[in-house]
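S.,

Sequence below, as promised.
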Amino acid sequence: MFSSSLCPPIYWGRRRRRMLPLIVLLLHVSAVCSDSHSLRYYYTGVSAPGSGLPEFSIVGYVDDREIVNYNSDSGRYRPKVQWMEKMEDGYWEENTQRSKGTEAVMRHNVRTAMERFNQSGGFHSFQRMTGCELGNDGGITGYDQFGYDGREFLALDTQTWTYVPTMAQAQISAQRLNSPEEQWGERWKNYLENICTEYLKKHVENGREDLERRVRPQVKVSGQEKGDTVKLHCQVYGFHPRAVDVKWMKNKDEVHSYETTHVLPNPDGTYQIRVSAEVTPKDGDRYSCYVDHHSLEEPLYIVWEPEKSSVWVIAVVVAVVVVAGIGIGGFIFYKRRNGRQDGHHFGRILRLQ
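The prediction came back faster than expected:
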C-alpha cells in the first residue's frame, strides 16, 4: 500500500512548479508512481566554464534512472545504463552530432539571457526541462520548462498549448514561441503525444527489469537529548525506487515541524533519506517514524525508545552503502536534423531573440 501523495505530476494545466537551483532541479524534478513511467531530458548552459561545470551538459532520465549523458568536455552522447546499448545502430553518433548543434545554440541563449538582465559577467545558467509521463491508465502528462539562474523563466501551459512568461525578460521569447509562424506549443504537443511516448515505451521495455525492481528499505531511528528537548532522526536507506514517504508521528498525529534531506543516491542504485524533528517528550508520548514505499505491503512504524540510543530495523539484508557524490548532470533537448527526430529532439532548438 503506497500513498498516492508520493506521485504528484510536475504540471497540471496552468499550475507550474518554480524552477529550482541547478542540483536541486536535477534531483527533484518529479516523484513518479511505480505504475507510471516518465522520460525527461534536461539541458543547461553556463556562462563561466571555469566554475567547475562544463559549458554545456545533457542528461536524460527514465523514471529515476539516468540513461544518457553528454557534455562539452567529452563531446560524446553516451549511455549511462547497460540496457540503453540496445538502441539501434547510429543512435549514438546521430545524437552526438545533434547535441553539438544544441551546444552552440545554448551558448547563444546564455549570452542573450544575460543581455536581457543587463549582466556583463559572473556565473549564470540557462536551463530547460522537457519530457512526458505515461500513467498506468494510459493518460499522458507533459512538461516543458525554461529557467535562468535557478528561477523559472518560461513554461508551457498544457491546457492552451501556449508558453507563459514568468518574468518580464521572457516576454519576447513567449511572443515568438506563440506566434503563428512558430507555434511551438502545437509542435510540443505532437512531440508529447507521439515521439516522446514512443521512445518512453521503447526504453521501458528495454530496461523493465532495472526500472521496476523493488528493494525494501532499512530504517534506523535515534535521538539526541538537548535539555528538555530531543532531536529525533529517522534514516531510511537502501530502497528502490526513489519515491518514498517518511515522517515522524507523535502518538497518532503527524509531527509537522521537521527537517528533511533530499532523497540521495547510493552507489548501488538505491536511495536514502533522513528526516529529523525536534520534540519535547512528555509522559505518555510515543514517537515513531512512518515509512511508506512501493516495496512494502503496509507502511512501517518504527518506534523511538528513549532508553536506547538507537533502534535498528532491518527490512532486508543488504550491505551498508556509502552516499555517492552528487554528480552534476546537464540537460538535454531536441533539434531538427534532415527532417528526422528521435526521443529527445523535436522541431528547432529555441534560440532567444
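The CA atoms of residues 315 and 324 lie 22 Å apart.

Coffee later?
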